[in-house]
Write a structure and sequence with these properties.
Keywords: Iron, Metal-binding, Oxidoreductase. It is built from 6 helices and 15 strands. It has 302 residues and is of the alpha+beta class. Helix 1 crosses helix 4. The protein binds 2-oxoglutaric acid and fe (ii) ion.
Amino acid sequence: MTGALQLPIVDLSSPDRFSTANSIRQACIDHGFFYLVNHGVDEELVKKVFEQSSNFFSLPIEDKMKLVQRNRRGYVTLYAGKLDFTSSSTKGDFREGFFIGPLADDLNQWPLEEDLPSWRSTMETYYKKLLSVGTELLSLIALSLRLDADFFEKLGALNDPLAKMGLLHYPGGLDCSNEEIYGASAHSDFGMITLLATDGVPGLQICREKTEQPHVWEDVPSMSGAFIVNIGDVMERWTNCLFRSTVHRVLPPGQERYSVTIHPFMFTSVVISCVIISQVFRVDITRLSFHITSSITLQLSK
Ligand SMILES: O=C(O)CCC(=O)C(=O)O
Ligand SMILES: [Fe+2]
């Protein structure tokens, strides 16, 4: 069953940080998803990122394969990944991607400047800008949890700003009537928060009650100029499940679709403890730790 949904809207430019923090709190309790408006990222920059993304994915496959993923950076082919680990489908998700990690460590792969002029600088500008939006958001999230605004910063979230940006391309035109293939199969994101920009083509759906069967899927319409923000598994654990890491997916649209994700903070060395203590612990506190291997494979122990 599906239906359309109107997510809460959070205005990042509001001078009243406490009221913004309260609206974030309510949005994260009710949906785990919200629209972020007045975020200060220039519309022209977002447009350029989408244009450059399309330029890359339009290259011949041989050229894209020269940048095939190494160290979790670079090009990932159609069907190579499957976000729903529980799915019995033998095929992966019907999308291709290009992943960019921390700019300082020299592990990123870039198209040649002569092939795609300004490609690298556009992506680097967007990455840095989104990291600063994420930083502001993280301090508001701390306030929303009745913590000091610099709570996560003091834990080292900004010392090691391990962020991952994904350019995603859903080619469309897939007739999937016989097979269970999605653009992105059902999953929750594993980090703290995700900021998502889409080109407006529909396809994203969320399921708010992940334990209920059958799943009820609701369409998330895009909002012009807004980012879609969602809570990830690590933040769900920080909050003892007060904030939801909501399951979502992307249907294989008949129409071509582009999106850009960024997961700004992936702590590498911090033990995740609960900041919301209630009568009922919904997570196992004694095992709330996580590890990221050098290849940024995150294993959350449950
Ligand atoms: O493309 C989208 O709209 C969402 C993608 C997504 O959920 C993901 O890559 O984690
Ligand atoms: Fe996701």
